[in-house]
Amino acid sequence: MKALALDLGRARTGVAVSDPSGTVVRPLPVIHEIDRPDGTAALDAVIAAEAPEVIVVGQPLLMSGEAGEQAHQASSFAGRLRRRVDARVVLCDERLSTAEAERRRRESGSRAELDSLAACVILEAWLARDREAA
């Protein structure tokens, strides 16, 4: 199943996509100001180009597992996205995804944008959980 992941941010949103089998994940360019018209248009273009079956929105839960303000904003964004796209939209706990992305970038020497590497971490975690559930 081809999936797209978003690591939401106010200024930049990281984007990652899987291959159709859901085994290989790659970062895409970040989208700037995703809630503004240009950002929304950029997201729509990525969704049209990649045609994902599912869109995974990172939900930054607090370390306690509770939903704080940013988690509620991610949930609200996912709700708005569900009304605009044909793909299934799901939320995924993204705790520590940026720290993991930083570690991977440091170890690999990757030049990919950190936000999109974090989206890769989120997508890989969701795909692994989806495979286990199947």
SSE layout and pairings?
Elements: E1 3-7, E2 12-18, E3 25-32, H1 37-50, E4 54-59, H2 69-84, E5 88-93, H3 97-108, H4 114-133
Shape: globular
Structural class: alpha/beta
What's the total number of strands? 5
Overall mean pLDDT stands at 92
What share of the residues lie within helices?
A: 40-55%
Strand coverage percent:
15-25%
User: What is the topology, as strand order, of the major beta sheet?
Assistant: 3-2-1-4-5
Radius of gyration, CA atoms, in whole angstroms: 14 Å
What separation lies between the terminal Cα atoms?
12 Å
Give me the strand/helix succession.
EEEHEHEHH
Report the biggest beta sheet as strand number plus sense, adding barrel if it closes: 5 strands, mixed
- Low-pLDDT runs: none
Number of helices: 4
Tell me about this structure.
With 134 residues, this protein is an alpha/beta fold. It has helices at 37-50, 69-84, 97-108, 114-133; strands at residues 3-7, 12-18, 25-32, 54-59, 88-93. It has a 5-stranded mixed beta sheet with strand order 3-2-1-4-5, with helices on both faces. Helix 3 packs across helix 4.
Write a compact overview of the structure shown.
By secondary structure, the protein is α/β, with parallel strands linked by helices. The protein has helices at residues 37-50, 69-84, 97-108, 114-133; strands spanning 3-7, 12-18, 25-32, 54-59, 88-93. A 5-stranded mixed beta sheet has the order 3-2-1-4-5, sandwiched between helices.
Protein traits:
single chain; 134 residues; alpha/beta; five-stranded mixed beta sheet; globular
